[in-house]
Amino acid sequence: MGNVLCRVQWQVLKPIHLLRVYGAHSGRPSVNDFPDREHRRRPRGIPNRGWKWVGVYRLEMHDVRDLTVYKRSKFKKKKKINFFFKTIYILTNLNPFFTTFTTNQHQNSKTFISFKHKMDSKFPFLSPIPDFPDDDDTGSSDSSLVFFQNLIQQAELLDTASSSKKKYVRRDRVGGHETLMADYFDENPKFSEDTFRHRFRMSKSLFLKIVSDVQAYDEWFQEGLDGRMKKSFTPLQKVTSAIKQLATGNPPDEGDEYLNMSERTSRECLEYFCETVCKRYGGEFLRRPTSHDIALLYQAHEDRHHLPGMLGSLDCTHFVWRMCPTELRGQYMRGDHQYPTVMLEAVASQDLWIWHAFCGPAGSQNDINVLQQSPLFLAQRNGTAPNCPFQVNNHLYKRGYYLTDGIYPTWSVFVKSFPYPHDPNEKKFKRQHEAARKDVERAFGVLKSKWGILNRPMRSKTVKKIRSIVYTCLILHNMIIKDDGRAIAPVHIQDPPVEPVFDDTAYTELIDEDTH
Question: Most exposed among 73, 369, 451, 489, judged by the fewest C-beta atoms under 10 Å?
């Protein structure tokens, strides 16, 4: 038990009254402090240290008790001293209830006196109440009860009395839209097309197409009126804010000065934009290769890399998760990374088009564990994959393959280079393999350099939001490749629908390297 800091004695005129008392406990109070057995223990939920609510205590008629407050160590923070004496001052100001105030530390007494003088001038409502006559018990009890309840409410608000309310900022939405139009979208804009492409990562025609499609797909991006009957932000401002955050990775409050948009609205623009883009364009620009696409990929990779039957290169990359919750850190940590990371498994072709993406798996973060959770070969297992064999040296192969590094298992659909080549043909194949496998590494480099939000620590607090942001960047990346005319398969030709049927032998053929 610590030293006794002060003792306050009071007498209650109300037959039964509940009193909420501030205090600081360093342990269990003594029996003499609270004679009732039910109040001897520390209330549940109150920590041993710190200035918290001690609890609600029951006081009976004409019962004189002592409240003793203990302390374990000396006061180190001025805020705690003021907090304590503020409460003691409220209690001692009630003349009919609190009769004595004593302390055994002279230094703290001086602090209390000076603080009391300051509060007398700042809070006039804390003046002593008049004495009630003894013959009128009902009136005095009711009046004291009302005053006591008001006083407790004022005590709860003392900590927030000095804090000012959040100031409303008047933002000129119309002026922000006019500035944006004058800079990029007027007949004679301030900045050129090259500057627009550098800042928005895409051409102006593609940007306007995205604004039109997003506005037609989601009502949130349509212009309307708010509760004050003022115009909301235009679709151009909302999409600009979202793409700026994806391109630069800066905090949401960056657009407050230029777009006159608050931090909360900018954050909502990013979330709604990512959700809408994934729903609107995901089926086309993040699709699985169809039979038409696979035929074009076979031809392009054979002409470029001299590797017939190649579908693409498979690899994984990491994104730093800055705001990872504590309960999830163990699932997203690796020994070679200082911070939690989110992994992305992707397949890229020679034109850097992303044909497969799987982001955010939990568990031990390595390529093999991600592959075991990935839906990469789900179409082969349920029988919906297109039948696209190829022929090399008069030998027919049932399905294409992916180029991988040495960590991946030796499956029939994975082709790895020789670790220690000796034969000249093996050395030549190793050079061709390493040159072709750089496609996925180049794709990761272009993604992180073009979309700064992927190259900087993620500020989202859920895996779902991170996955939405990553997929949005991949979709926009593929849209830019198609808009620039560099796509191998720019036209999406769908295959006839096939009823899914689970095939037991498909997985066995995939993991058997001698299947071909």
Answer: 73
Comparing 23 with 421, the larger pLDDT belongs to 421
- The stretch 337-346 carries a mean pLDDT of 91
Sequence-separated (6 or more) residues with CB below 8 Å from residue 338: none
CA distances from 407 to 365, 376, 411, 431 (A): 13, 17, 12, 18
What span, in angstroms and rounded, lies between the C-alpha atoms of 413 and 311?
10
CB 380 within 8 A of CB 510: yes
- What's the whole-model pTM score? 0.69
- The CB-based long-range contact list for 407-412 (8 Å cut-off, 24+ gap) reads 407/366, 407/367, 407/368, 408/314, 408/367, 408/368, 408/371, 409/368, 409/511, 410/513, 411/510, 411/511, 411/512, 411/513, 412/509, 412/510, 412/511, 412/512, 412/513, 412/514, 412/515, 412/516
Which residue's entry shows tokens 């708010």? 226
- Which stretch, 43-57, 188-202, 498-512, has highest mean pLDDT? 188-202
Measure the CA–CA gap between 444 and 133, rounded to whole angstroms: 84
